[in-house]
């Protein structure tokens, strides 16, 4: 009984899985229902996936539907965070930045709101997904999106220090190591992973990022068919610093919950002190592999 009550005091996080469409108001309604459920269940922080606002049919529709951080949609999420009294990781917002007039391109922006609805951090995706995977259809994120200029320092939240990333960023371990060295205890990769790369790479990459950084990894994902041109893999999950999947969403929209045990994280880092053993003097500048 004592063990149960002590684990009950650990902060609880909720990971939301959705199927966004081009219908922004319907998407908000779906996300808001999950956030309210997370609050009812006692979560202090809820994570939404990349493109929680919408998944458009083409770059032109993406640009047309995008908004500024001061627009109506973020206003609704500000109110929602305040109403529910919990923090929100809005995993990938199509943001018209200050340079919108000149560039006519947007940022893929991860927004962190506190429980009063204030924006406490914004991270603009630095690695854009321009890939051609047979069977999955080409992705050209740079057609509509500008890469962000910098990483965001990890942010103290009621669950721990959160390092912000987005989807394709998980393929770059340098980013996760930089966030961990800056103090992150939780890394988050909100995503809309494809149906071919998903089964092959999704879980193994998330577990690898958790093991090498000794952080919790939280990955809220898009799932199912968004429209006739696009589908996502789903399988939202939370991985602990040992690399164990401690929570996982079932198929379809919904949420899963996990406790964040920072005492366990610190104990593990003490027992396996990889950050003390690193040799940055040997690694040099890691660039393109030599052919």
Automatic annotation (TrEMBL):
Q: Which residues cross the membrane?
A: none
A GO CC annotation recorded here is:
mitochondrion
GO MF annotations, alphabetized: deaminated glutathione amidase activity
- Report the residue ranges that make up the CN hydrolase domain in this protein: 10-262
Kindly state which keywords UniProt assigns to this record, in alphabetical order: Hydrolase
- EC number(s) reported in the record: 3.5.1.128
Instruction: State the Gene Ontology BP annotations.
Output: amide catabolic process
State the Gene3D superfamilies in the record: Carbon-nitrogen hydrolase
Q: Which protein family is named in the record? A: Belongs to the carbon-nitrogen hydrolase superfamily. NIT1/NIT2 family.
For this protein, the record's PANTHER family field holds: DEAMINATED GLUTATHIONE AMIDASE (PTHR23088:SF27), NITRILASE-RELATED (PTHR23088)
Protein name (Swiss-Prot/TrEMBL): Deaminated glutathione amidase
- The gene it comes from is NIT1
């Amino acid at each position: 009984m004592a063990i149960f009550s002590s684990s009950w005091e650990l902060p609880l996080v909720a990971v939301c899985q959705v199927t966004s469409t081009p219908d922004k108001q319907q998407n908000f309604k779906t996300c808001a229902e999950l956030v309210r459920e997370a609050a009812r269940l006692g979560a202090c922080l809820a994570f939404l996936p990349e493109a929680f606002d919408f998944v458009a049919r083409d770059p032109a529709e993406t640009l047309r539907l995008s908004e500024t951080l001061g627009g109506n949609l973020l206003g609704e999420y500000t109110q929602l965070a305040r109403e529910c009294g919990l923090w929100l990781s809005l995993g990938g917002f199509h943001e018209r930045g200050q340079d919108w007039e000149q560039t006519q391109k947007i940022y893929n922006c991860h927004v962190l709101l506190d429980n009063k609805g204030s924006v406490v951090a914004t991270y603009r995706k630095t690695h854009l997904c321009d890939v051609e995977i047979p069977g999955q259809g080409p992705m050209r994120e740079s057609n509509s999106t500008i890469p962000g200029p910098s990483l965001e320092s990890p942010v103290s939240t009621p669950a721990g220090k959160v390092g912000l990333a987005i989807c394709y960023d998980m393929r770059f371990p340098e980013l996760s190591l930089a966030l961990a060295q800056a103090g992150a205890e939780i890394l988050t990769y909100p995503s809309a992973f494809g149906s071919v790369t998903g089964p092959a790479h999704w879980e193994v990459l998330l577990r690898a990022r958790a093991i090498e950084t000794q952080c919790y990894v939280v990955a809220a994902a898009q799932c199912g068919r968004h429209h006739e041109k696009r589908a996502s893999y789903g399988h939202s999950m939370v991985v602990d610093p040992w690399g164990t999947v401690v929570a996982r969403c079932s198929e379809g929209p919904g949420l899963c919950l996990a406790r964040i045990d920072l005492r366990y994280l610190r104990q593990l880092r003490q027992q396996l002190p990889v950050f003390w053993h690193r040799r940055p003097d040997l690694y040099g500048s890691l660039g393109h592999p030599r052919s």
